[in-house]
Amino acid sequence: MVIKLYMSSLSGSTEIKKKQSKIKDLLESLKIEFEEIDISDHRNEKQKEFMRNNSKGKKEGETPIAPQLFNDDKYLGDYDAFLDATENEQIYEFFQLQSPKKDKKSEEVITNTSVEDEIKSED
């Protein structure tokens, strides 16, 4: 599964540029692999159409604008949905990824069980 960030490097809006930067910064800080797709690049016209056809605009009938987020081809949401997930500490759920914290807990359970088994076998 690959997180895809649909963004625009040619946006004249500083607000959009900041939103895109915040998403990229968080993904990089959490070491979540992602693909950046620049919809302003004419070579990405098919990806731009895909984003527009599979995203939601702010209002009914409105054309979606960058940034938009997908997990492979599954739509996750726009910046506002991303921000809500961040504020609610549900970023891994938003991206539909397993949290590294859950992995560590699983490892701890396995390790603790192994230690208990070793103690019982010594008795």
Write the layout of secondary structure elements.
Layout (H helix, E strand, L loop, with lengths): L2 E5 L6 H16 L4 E5 L6 H10 L13 E4 L2 E5 H9 L3 H5 L4 H23 L1
Parallel strand pairs: 1-2
Antiparallel strand pairs: 1-3, 3-4
Helix % is 40-55%
Number of helices: 5
CATH C-level name: Alpha Beta
Strand order of the largest sheet: 2-1-3-4
What form results from the Cα inertia axes? globular
Beta-strand portion reads 15-25%
Supply the CATH architecture: 3-Layer(aba) Sandwich
Structural class: alpha+beta
Measure the end-to-end span: 46 Å
Mean pLDDT: 87
Radius of gyration: 20 Å
Query: Biggest β-sheet, characterized?
Result: 4 strands, mixed
User: Can you identify the CATH superfamily?
Assistant: Glutaredoxin
Query: Any idea how many domains?
Result: 1
Unreliable spans: 105-120
Describe the 3D structure.
The chain is an alpha+beta fold and 123 residues long. It has a single domain, classed as Glutaredoxin, CATH 3.40.30.10. 51% of the residues lie in helices and 15% in strands. It contains 5 helices and 4 strands, in the order βαβαββααα. The protein has helices spanning 14-29, 45-54, 79-87, 91-95, 100-122, and strands at 3-7, 34-38, 68-71, 74-78. It has a 4-stranded mixed β-sheet, with helices on both faces. α1 (14-29) links the parallel β1 and β2. It starts with a strand and ends with a helix. Mean pLDDT is 87; it is low at 105-120.
